[in-house]
């Protein structure tokens, strides 16, 4: 008996187009790869975009996977059944392989991050992102109930008397994925809670004031559950500040959870996602979009540095995004033991003068101020010992 391996029966690590060549891959190759991954990892789930067809130069590409033929020749019915069983056994083995799943997770994440570099129609790009995110979301599926999977948390932050009232935010803290240990943004961490509280208690300390003309552009890096962005979306209107707020992250699953949190906090806007006070967007720090250069007035990030290279990527990305007069508030968590010990030092090292970018006017991008913040009782993980708040921006020559 011979069994031919094709489509979803092939190892993803040996059949998917290399990540470095994704921007130049053909539309047919990308869609075929996604179709094979859907057939392999989520054969019983139908994504919203799957029934649609992609039309390219008069050719319809059906979204459903083409049946994989068995190379049976003149095989009898019994032999065909044996072939089917063998194929299913091979498929199940590939589906359960942790290395292959990890490879696919990285490949899909890279695909989403680089889709704007592809010379495809916007509708095709949207379908690629939707289908890739659909496959990624299937990796975190669980047999447990929704109540067991998530925890709803309510936060209340007091405002100064002149602004009156308080800011209330409701969040869904989803469980961490079992397939990608880096999607820590599915949970709210102490730094984001403390930073949100500080901004509400003293907005002027964070340079929160109306611009002379136009709306303030606010962007959160590594937004996670979106707590800081949602806090600003409720705080700024109370201060009569018109703002465009975007919560960004690198992980599609995290952004999906963030979008749910935005809809939960602004249910009256749910009918039209374009009307939401907070938008979501995927952002790769190592490759920020050219069109966002010098476009952000207020940049926020909390507890987003977990490795030395993160600080360097963050520095260069922030320098790319921030306007000359803008400010970047970075809250870093201090941990005195474990693998994340010494993270604040990596930030300090990344911002030494000779490593910091300079703009065409000769201004240097660097740390303008720092403040130690004490850990608050009942907030954050047990390994957190406090925080360092950095004020970062462009300094004179």
Q: How would the blueprint of this fold be written?
A:
Elements: H1 12-15, H2 27-41, E1 54-56, E2 59-61, H3 77-96, H4 98-114, H5 122-139, H6 146-149, E3 151-158, E4 166-173, H7 190-201, E5 216-221, H8 227-238, E6 243-249, H9 252-265, E7 278-282, E8 296-302, H10 308-321, E9 322-335, H11 343-350, E10 364-374, E11 384-395
Parallel strand pairs: 5-6, 5-8, 6-7, 8-9
Antiparallel strand pairs: 1-2, 3-4, 9-11, 10-11
A few lines on this structure:
One of its GO terms (molecular function) is S-adenosylmethionine-dependent methyltransferase activity. The protein is an alpha/beta fold. The chain has 2 domains: 9-45 and 82-143, no CATH class; 151-395, 3-Layer(aba) Sandwich (Rossmann fold), CATH 3.40.50.
Written account of the structure:
InterPro entries: Methyltransf_16 (IPR019410), SAM-dependent_MTases_sf (IPR029063). The chain is α/β, with parallel strands linked by helices and 397 residues long. It folds into 2 domains: 9-45 and 82-143, no CATH class; 151-395, Rossmann fold (3-Layer(aba) Sandwich). It has 11 helices and 11 strands. α2 packs parallel to α5 (122-139), α4 packs antiparallel against α5 (122-139) and α10 (308-321) packs across α11 (343-350). Mean pLDDT is 79; it is low at 1-8, 45-80, 142-149 and 175-186.
Strand content: 15-25%
- Strand count, sense and closure of the main sheet? 7 strands, mixed
CATH superfamily of the largest domain: Vaccinia Virus protein VP39
CATH top level label of the largest domain: Alpha Beta
Count of all domains: 2
InterPro entries: Methyltransf_16, SAM-dependent_MTases_sf
GO molecular function, one term: S-adenosylmethionine-dependent methyltransferase activity
Biased composition (Low complexity): 1-23
Protein name: S-adenosyl-L-methionine-dependent methyltransferase
